UniProtKB/TrEMBL annotation:
It is an enzyme of class 3 (hydrolase). Keywords: DNA damage, DNA repair, Glycosidase, Hydrolase. InterPro entries: MPG. Belongs to the DNA glycosylase MPG family. This is Putative 3-methyladenine DNA glycosylase. It comes from the Bacteria.
Amino acid sequence: MSALLDREELSTDVLPAAVRLLGCTVEADTPDGTVAVRLVEVEAYRGADDPASHSYRGRTPRNSVMFGPAGHLYVYFVYGMHFCANVSCLDEGEAGAVLMRAGEVVSDLTVARTRRPTARRDTDLARGPARLASLLGLDREHNGVDVTSAASPVRVLSGPPVPASRIRTGPRVGVAGARELPWRFWVDGAPEVSAYRPGRVRPRTR
DNA sequence: GCGTTGATATTCT
DNA sequence: GAATATCAACGCC
């Protein structure tokens, strides 16, 4: 049993916030029941100085949660069919968020399998940001939810802390710009970590 | 096991 | 019109 994560732990810069979120548990109430996932892979995104970030070119209706206070969900729709979920960082006015990329299901495995019946192995249930969001039932309606409140349908519980020696870093997945920034963090050896795919322009096939 | 491809909303140009 | 913080299904080893 763990306590809710403090908002202050996320109002720091995005890198310490990303490291802090590793090992934390995301608990979500879905139509099928409650699912909890321990985060093993995250990516940090910031504002004006991060070309890979949605907030790089200023505030829009979609990314406005990134500019708001820390500890809220930024859920966005990509590729016309998937949702991805971030936790906002930094204080009001400063854009930042941590993308939740992968996690290990800690409960309830039966509910989780019901939600994603096509997953071949348990470690595939929340392997990748869109899979994780769909497993937790996150969509547009959860944009802006406060994950530090016990009354929310989605909550982040703190720790157990991941030893620094088990944390690895590297370039973010699928981003074309700012590839020199090692802003992806994962737990060494976790089988749920998504495969690295360099952010290249896919060759046009036509 | 691996590479290719289709689905297609939102944003920016 | 083009790119994108993706996944799953398919063909082919």
